[in-house]
Design brief:
The chain contains 15 helices and seven strands. With 469 residues, the chain is α+β, with helices and mostly antiparallel strands. It has three domains: 231 residues, no CATH class; 148 residues, no CATH class; 55 residues.
């Protein structure tokens, strides 16, 4: 045990922390009153904890939007609207409140999305199949209300008023819903067993849940866990805020982006949006609804698909469409005019590498996009400058050491070859639908199953054709 941990535990708790801890324990022990006085069983506890978990998921997503510290992310993970993780700056919704950071939106969607695509359908399937009957009585609603009030009180006083948002990251807030999900799953498995439900078991469930909530509150506010599971299980889910400081030099040149080209470029972002858990789940739900043939289900699934599309378009535009490129002294700065914050900056000199991007949108609209290599403030990655209306004019305005701004010439042979192969791929689903011996439902099902497998070669062929238009 480290010396700092021993010293932290030896100090008395602050009064506000002690009161908050007592309130957490008291609220979580309220179900004991329901067990003793109102005769609650495991099913009643399952309903109460399920409602609390749903409220915790929503509240954790709201909290994540305000989290000030940065989130390193998990290795290999792709969050919904993940491009917003590169966004710096925030928007203040109300005077006196902290700003909402767009970079936290992917983590907030991950919290809600995981619940929507996994826990929610599984819960409804459980209740509709072999789940016990539930009757919402006044005492049960009162117990749920007490837990919800505790959630709101924690958000307004502990999180906002005490400025806890300044010490946490959005990624850290993912842990609480996961822990409560384990509790709900355990109670659900016990409730499914009709032989369980004795008074001692009910007391044990409530006390264990209260202890887990108290432990979570203690580690969140004191910062020193009562025991450690080893360094292998301890992951750093927080890093300093990724904000940048502007150079003191005045702006001596600025170039804006072409908004229509940014919107057209979001078409490719839409395709990648369906590669996440939420995107794949919406496509699977749409395919299932079409196979079942229920209009209401199809309408809901289509709305979910449209929501994914709208989210991708808006996030892509927020990433690139609100940026203005400025020359400040020796620095090239990408400045977001909506959030009033620099996104990245790099010194302009003979070692700065610029190249012209062969973007499909630029070929279709006559705009230009430059690529800047190894930008330090973007963690060593390449960033884009544009799309701008004219690359030569942008280079002159910003004083960039770029000599060549032309793209590869149009190639009709590549366009024809790629288009022919695309037609060959398209002939398969069309033939299935038009074949009289194949039922429509079977054709649609085969298309839905094989569609994702063909998406990669079709996308590559489409890019090859459009990149030489």
């Amino acid at each position: 045990m480290r010396r700092s941990d021993r010293l932290t535990r030896s100090l008395p708790l602050p009064v506000t922390t002690a009161v908050g801890l007592a309130l957490v324990v008291g609220v979580n022990l309220l179900p004991l009153f329901g067990v003793v006085v109102w005769g609650w069983n495991l099913t009643s506890l399952l309903v109460v904890y399920w409602a609390e978990t749903l409220a915790t998921v929503v509240m954790a997503a709201v909290k994540a939007l305000f989290a000030e510290r940065g989130s390193p992310g998990g290795p290999g993970s792709v969050e919904p609207l993940h491009e917003l993780r590169e966004k710096r700056g925030g928007w203040r919704p109300w005077q006196g409140w902290p700003p909402i950071y767009p970079r936290n939106v992917p983590f907030a969607l991950s919290i809600v999305g995981f619940w929507v695509v996994t826990a929610l359908p599984l819960s409804f399937l459980y209740w509709e199949t072999n789940g016990p009957a539930v009757t919402l009585s006044l005492d049960l609603v009162a117990g749920i209300g007490a837990l919800l009030v505790a959630q709101v009180r924690d958000f307004t006083t502990e999180y906002i008023d005490d400025e806890t948002y300044a010490t946490v990251s959005a990624q850290e807030l993912l842990r609480t819903p996961a822990q409560l999900g384990v509790v709900v799953l355990s109670v659900g498995l016990l409730a499914a067993d009709g032989r369980s439900g004795g008074l001692a078991l009910l007391f044990g469930v409530v006390v264990a849940k209260a202890a887990a909530s108290a432990y979570r509150f203690y580690t969140d506010h004191v910062g020193a866990p009562a025991f450690r599971l080893g360094e292998h299980f301890e992951t750093d889910a927080s890093e300093p805020p990724p904000e940048l400081d502007l150079p003191e030099a005045p702006v001596r040149g600025r170039v804006t982006v072409d908004a229509r080209s940014v919107l057209l470029g979001s078409v490719w972002a839409i395709a990648f949006g369906f590669a996440t858990r939420i995107g794949l789940a919406t496509l699977a739900a749409l395919g299932f609804a079409v196979l079942v043939g229920r209009p209401a289900w199809i309408a809901v699934a289509l709305l979910a698909v449209l929501a994914v599309v709208a989210g991708r378009v808006c996030s892509f535009y927020l990433r690139y469409g609100t940026v203005e490129y400025q020359r400040r002294g020796d620095e090239l700065v990408a400045y977001d005019t909506l959030l009033d914050a620099p996104q990245w900056m790099t010194p302009v000199g003979p070692d700065t590498e610029f190249s012209v991007k062969n973007a499909i949108v630029d070929r279709l609209r006559g705009t230009d996009t430059l690529t800047v290599a190894d930008v330090v403030s973007a963690e060593g990655r390449d960033v884009q400058l544009g799309p701008v209306r004219d690359a030569d004019e942008a280079v002159e305005t910003l004083g960039l050491p770029v000599e060549e701004t032309t793209r590869p010439e149009r190639d009709p042979a590549i366009i024809a070859a790629a288009s022919g192969l695309l037609l060959a791929f398209a002939a398969v689903p069309v033939g299935l639908v038009l074949a009289p011996q194949v039922e429509t439902g079977t054709a649609v099902g085969i298309t839905v199953v094989l569609g994702p497998l063909c998406a990669l070669p079709v996308g590559a062929l489409l890019w090859a054709a459009l990149s030489r238009v």
